[in-house]
Structures are given as C-alpha cells and as structure tokens.
Amino acid sequence: MTVGLRILCMCAGFFVFLVTVRLLIRCKMDEANSFLWIPLGVGALISGFFPEVVAWISAALGVQNPPTLVLIAAIVLVILILLKNTLEISIYKSENHELSMQVSMLNSEVRGLIEFCKRLQGVEAPAEAPQNQFRRPL
Q1: What 3-state class would DSSP assign to 2?
Q2: Which of 27, 96, 113, 116 is the most exposed place for a label (fewest CB within 10 A)?
C-alpha cells in the first residue's frame, strides 16, 4: 500500500470515527447507527496504520490487491447501513400512514360532535349523541 493511500485511509478513518462519536455525544445519532459507522472508521484507521494486517487478510481471502479489500469492506458496510435505513423508513412510513388514518377518523368524530353540540343549543330536549361508525373499540 502506498504512503498516500495509507494517509488517505488514516484521515478518512479518523474523520468517520470523530464525526460518529461527536454525533453520538450530541444525541444526533442513535447507538444502533453508530455501531455500524464506528467499525468503518476503525477499519480505515487500522488499514492505514497497519497495512500488513490488510495484506494478510487479503492473502487469506485470495484478493490480489489489498486496497481492493478495504474498498469492498467499506462498500459492504455502507450497503448494510443503507439497508438498515431503508427498513426503518419503511416502518416509519407504515406508522405514519396508520397515524394519518387515525387523525382523519378523530377529525370526523370531532365534526360530528360539533354538529351535535350545535343541535343541542337549538333544541331543549337533548338528543342522543351520534355514534362514530369508524371508531374502533378500545
């Protein structure tokens, strides 16, 4: 591994590690996401400081060019992070849809109660309160 590539790996690893820790301390990133980014930074640091480890692992795996192994490992970790975030987005989208349906039902119920109150103000004998047909039992 050339000196320039080693310095680039060290700088990138330090940057990723530092940014991840700072975001974690400021509560901008949760622990689950940081457990995916910290190994990426540490791996880049190790590959910069100890290129022999990368050369040994790449020889054991049959990869002829050790920097290729570093790039493949980084790409795999980033794809895992992307997959995790995609799953979270899908879950949040489903929850958001459910909540919007509940808000719509509550708005309908409130409109019915407002109409009922308006009718009560004009009538002396109270009528029975309207039942919301969309409300689920608790």
Answers
A1: coil
A2: 27
